Structure formats: structure tokens, C-alpha cells
Amino acid sequence: MSIEKRILARELWLAAARPGDIVKPIWFLLLVISMVPLALTPDSDSLAEIGSAMIWVATLLALLLNSEHLFQSDFSDGILEQYLFFDRPLAWLVGLKLTAHWLLHVLPLILISPIGAVMLSVPGDVSIALFITMLVATPALTCFSGLGAALTLGSSRSGILGALIMLPLFVPVVVLASGVLVRAMDGSETLPLLALLGAFSVASAILVPIAVSLAIRVNIGGSN
Amino acid sequence: MNLEPLKLKIARLSCERDYRLLFDSLAFTLDAGSILRVAGKNGAGKTTLLRTIAGLYEIQEGEVLVGDQPVSEAMHRILYIGHRPQVTGDLSVLDNFKYMAGHDDTSLKFALDSVGMLSYHDSLVKELSQGQGRRCALARLWCSDAPIWILDEPYTALDVSMIKILDKKIASHVANGGICLFTTHQVPTLSEFQTLELGCVN
Amino acid sequence: MRWRWFHQWGSPRWFYERAGRWQLVCGWLSLGLIAVGTIWGLGFAPVDYQQGNSYRIIYLHVPVAFLAQAMYAAMSVSAVVLLVWKMKIADIAMQSIAVMGLAFTALALGSGAVWGKPTWGTYWVWDARLTSMLILAFLYLALIGLRASIRDPDQAGKVCGILVLVGVVNLPIIKYSVEWWNTLHQPASLKLTEKPTMPASMWIPLLINILGYYIVAAYLVLGSMRAILVARERRSSWVRELVRRV
User: Fold this and answer.
1) Per-residue model confidence (pLDDT) at position C185
2) What is the ipTM of this complex?
3) CA angle, C151 then C147 then C177, to 5°
4) pTM for this predicted structure
5) CA distances from B29 to B35, B60, C194 (A)
6) Which residues of chain A neighbour C162 with C-beta distances below 8 Å?
7) Which CATH number fits domain B8-84+143-197: 1.20.950.20, 3.40.50.300, 3.40.50.720, 3.30.1330.50?
8) Interchain CB distance below 8 Å, C135 and A222
């Protein structure tokens, strides 16, 4: 097995061994969505208007919630420092880990979003737009939340600090996605904005792992 | 299996932590086939030195050369086992091993057999005792091609029989032209080694 | 002690003593400039024909809003110096600037709110500039929080340096995206831009104040850097000697 395959396989088995890490964010997402009509109004017209944005924000928070453990346990077990002894650049290995994280922990959140859309009476075409937006935008968000997790590796009791640090950097993605949703509700062209979101995701996927690997190196270098 | 003969050269290596000079202008060369024990009191900088030589810490001053390459480019020639478990509690012994060390199942099972953990190969690591976990981490020595071994407190939590097995493995590694650096607070039972005493600079 | 200080700039003692002198110069200079600019601006500049006297808050608001952003630029330069040349004084600069940056951003937001009430009848609108200023405040907060969570100052410095640089790449993207978002949701009913045709008697005191606030920022950053430097070097001989002298 090549190093790449081994790292991906390990992530897969770890996810299987810790099903709670996959279930809890989905659970959280559904709970937040259930709170919206209770807090606001059960009226389906009003819900439809804000529903897609609510799902989007709830997904964002769920994504941040589950990225907290992205590197922490491997870091404290001393597994992450072993990655440095592999004959590969750390940024590449980090990229693999982030990819596995997206597939195993973020994709389920996206797949659940149509159910949320039904719960909040989001019209069909808007819910399709929401689904596509999430597919295109979450790679960038995964990278940034990974950066938050890596930066806070050295902190004692980091808790939600990684999320607090990274949320401001989510702004461009949130704004562009909201643009897509607004246009989908108007029935106007969404493709150019989706392309822009995609470009942002690609750029993040290339550049952010480098920053993540630097942060990991610093935190390995500063720990005993 | 003979390893390529490799020298480990440490030159003018200095390190300071929290306003304390741990070591200053440290210089030595280890030829293929040598064992170095790094000794010193708690807090003398043993772990810092080993991690610096392994390339995990940024070098503050001086250089570490593996062959003629700086260590940052030659880390794949080093096998480092530190204080941390190096194994994940939620995976089985064999899985832990498979994904970190590579190799086919036969040589992995041979390695586990050597440390007496074969019968536990499908138990989760978190179900094992501390010493057994340590054995799992050390099993990597039996399927590594790295010529340089850096072992931080390898004897901790090991019983007498495992200490003997480990000693034998280290001896055969250096007999094949490898290099081994280690620390321990116990009296080492290895037959031949050099000692570097830290904690003399102030 | 074997620090990697950069020539003289790197010597903590040299910096401490020089910075003390620069601080003195900056302090008096900024006091003079701000006194002139503020008295001129508040007392003698003409009344605005649209906003009346309430416009005069620009003599505070504009300089601090400038500084809120300039501080981030200064912090990025420090981050590069720290990560590339490993100069410890750059880390101390980064730490000081983050706190001052947050303070200026908060002042800019606060003075903007006070100005907003008489001008547009509300303390807060989700205007593009206000929104990006708010995000900037969150970024400063992130840097302060991250540093506070890490015990080892060297490690904290490097980690914060990475975050500063990621932030500086993102800030323009955030700014443009927020501007675009603003046009998406709101018709541009509120214009925040000052009228370009400001008479000289209005903008000259503003210019003096901007200069004064920049210098007062330097004064504050230098002071805070000296304090952090002494705290970090508390175990070194020169600080002990300093304490004995005092």
C-alpha cells in the first residue's frame, strides 16, 4: 500500500470506529433546523423565505463543530508527528486528511440538507440550488476549519476557539452562497456565482493545506 | 539485511528553552554501528535533544547531518518513537500498525509476534495495558528500513522479558550497520554503548 | 543568552532604551498635532451645510478608521519579519499591534455609530464598510484569543503569524465580497462617503489629526512593546538590573 492509500484507509477505519463523530453534527443540524419554526413561526411561506439560509448557516456551524477533532487526537497520540517521517511533503498528507474529512464528515451533512429543506418548506428548485452550493462551497470551508483546528493544536482547552478564529474567514463563501440562494429564489442565473465559489474552493484546496502544515509543524515543534 | 552505512553528524548544536541553555555547541559524529545513550536529570533536555536530532524541533543553532543531507530532508531515514503512545486507541493493534508502518500482513504479524502481541492483533489498543501499548509502538522496529533509530525512553513500562527482546533487537540493528540513540532512566542492560551526559552547561 | 536578535534591532535592551526615547518624542508630537487638529476642527472649521455640527466627529472617526486598517498592514509586516527572519521583536510588535488594532477598530465602530444616529437615524446599518470593519474586529479578536490560549510565547508568535498572513490574503476578498453582497441585498440608499468637495479649512485639520493619530498609535504600540518585552525578559540580567535601578 502506498502512503496515500494507507492514510486514507486509516481515516476510513477511524471514522468507522467513531460513528459518533459522524452522527453528532447531523443530529445538531436537524435540531437547529427544528428550532427555527419553534422560535419563529410554523407558517410555511415565511419559513420558505429564510429556510435555505437557515440550513446553510446551521450546516456551517455543524461543520465547524466536527472539525474540532480533525487533528487533535492524532496530535496527542503522537501520530501526527510520525507523518513528518514519511517521505512526502506534509502539506500533501494534510490535503489527503482534509479530503477524507470532507468525504466522511462533511458530505453526510450535505446529503441531509434536502430533508432540512423539506422541514422548512424550501421550494424544490431552491433546495437543489442549496445542495449544489454546499457541494461547491464546503471544500473551502473544510480547509479553513482544518486551519482553525491546526492553529489551536497547541492551546490548552482550545474548545471552540478554532471555530471562533475561522468564522470571519468564512465571510466570502457565505456571501457568495447567499448570492446563489437569492438568485435561485428570483429564478435568475446562478451559474456564474457557482463558478466563482468553485474557484474559491479550488484556490483554498491548493493554498490552505500549506498553511495548515506550517501550523502543525509549529505546534509539533513547541510541544513536549 | 544490511543497511546502507550512514553517518549522523551533529555540529555546533545549541538549544535554549525558557531562558535556560539546555546544550551549547554540542558536536559529535555517530558512525554506522554505534549506540548512543543520552543521559541526564529530568529537565536536562534529553527529549529536546532527541527531537531536535530527529528533525521534529526547529534547530536554533548548528546543524544535524544525516549522511550529507540536513535532517529536514532526510527524516524518512529516521525512525522515532517518543513519549506519546504512537498508536490510536480506537483501532486494532494490527490496523494501527498496518496504516502507519505499511508492509504486508505477513511481516506485520512477524513483527507483532516478536514483541509477543500476535495473539492480541485484533484487540483495540485502548483495551490493552500500558506496557502492551508500548510493545505495539515498539513493534515498528521489526519492520523498519530506517537506518537511524531514535528512541525516547523505550524501556518505560516494559517487563524484564521485553527489555531483553528490545536489547537484542537494538544490538542486531547496529550489527547491521544501523545507528541507535536512546534515553533511559533505568540502568541500561545493553552490552556496548556510548553515553552523552547532558546538564553540564549553565 | 543566545537569542537570535537581529543586530542592534534584535538586542532587547537596546530596543527598550531606544523605544523609550522614541516614545517620548512621539508622545509630545502627537499631543501637539492632535490638540491643533482637534481645536481647529471642532472650534474653527466651518459648519457643514447638510449635517450641521455633527459632521465634526470625522476628526476622530476618520483617523481611527484609517488606523484600524493600517494596524493590520503593520501587523502583517511584523508577521513576515517574524516568520522569515525569526526576529523576536517582530513577535512583540505583532502582539501589541493586535490589541491596539482591536481598540482602534472598536473606536471606529463606536464613533461611527454615534455619527450614524443623527445622520441616518440609526446606530447601525449593514453597510459594506461597517460590515467589513466588524469582521476586521473579529479577526483582531481571533489573534488575541489564539495568543492567549498558547502558553509558550515563541510558539504562540509563530501560530499567530500564520493566522495574520492567512488573514491578509483574505481581507481584500472579504472586503470585495461584502461590497458585492451589499449591492445584492440593499439598494444604495445610504451614502457614507464624505463629500469630496470639502473646503480646505475642513480637511487641513483632518489631515493634521490623521497624522497625530498615526503618531499616537506609534506611541501606544511602543509603550506596549516595552511592557511586553520587560515581562518576557523578566528572567534576564538586564531586566533585573533595570528593576534594581528603579
Assistant:
1) 63
2) 0.91
3) 155
4) 0.91
5) 11, 19, 70
6) 151, 211, 214-215, 218
7) 3.40.50.300
8) no
